[in-house]
Design brief:
This protein is mainly alpha-helical. Helices cover 66% and strands 0% of the residues. The protein is built from ten helices and no strands.
């Protein structure tokens, strides 16, 4: 074997090892992002092979919503026994449930008013409460609704996004740990 070929093989092996090490480190870090509790390890084993924890943490679903979500994942190929499915649903429903719209602070009263006047014309509050979008995600969602006919001014849009993000944004990681 030539020196050049030998160096290329060594370089390939080194790069492969480095990439695998980074992937393993990222997987370990992602696996630690779910709050502890009965079902946490099962969720890590069953869900974090395909998803990052933030996808789960960012959702706020009712028990019924989590049941639909887990059953959908099983239909799409996730492997879980009936007993494991129930543990996952209980874990998700306990740790990632919707917040009440009544928990809004006085500082975002105008945003809440816009939400109630503009959004609740077409949507039930639980649809919004179950979503856990970033500020950018809520901005896209509000802009989509405007394109679809919602009458929201530019000034109202900013206040509405602030309200939605403040009350229905992703749960901070620190708040999910017990």
């Amino acid at each position: 074997m030539s020196k050049r070929k030998s160096k290329l093989i060594k370089l390939s092996l080194a790069l492969t090892a480095a990439v695998c090490g980074l992937m393993n480190a990222n997987t370990r870090a992602a696996r630690q992002d779910l709050p502890e509790g009965k079902g946490a390890e099962l969720a890590r084993d069953k869900c974090l092979n395909c998803h990052e924890a933030d996808l789960i943490v960012s959702q706020r679903l009712s028990r019924q919503g989590w049941t639909r979500e887990v059953e959908k994942m099983i239909r799409w190929g996730a492997v879980a026994s009936e007993a494991e499915k129930e543990v996952l649903i209980e874990y998700f429903a306990a740790n990632f449930k919707p917040r009440s719209a009544a928990s809004a602070t006085a500082g975002d009263a105008r945003g809440k008013q816009i939400f109630e006047e503009k959004c609740l014309l077409c949507h039930e509050a639980d649809l919004t409460e179950q979503q856990r979008l970033s500020r950018q995600g809520w901005t896209r969602e509000v802009e989509k609704m405007i394109r679809w006919g919602a009458v929201v001014s530019d000034a109202e849009k900013e206040q509405l996004v602030d309200y939605l993000f403040g009350n229905f944004g992703p749960r901070p990681l620190a708040a999910t740990r017990k």
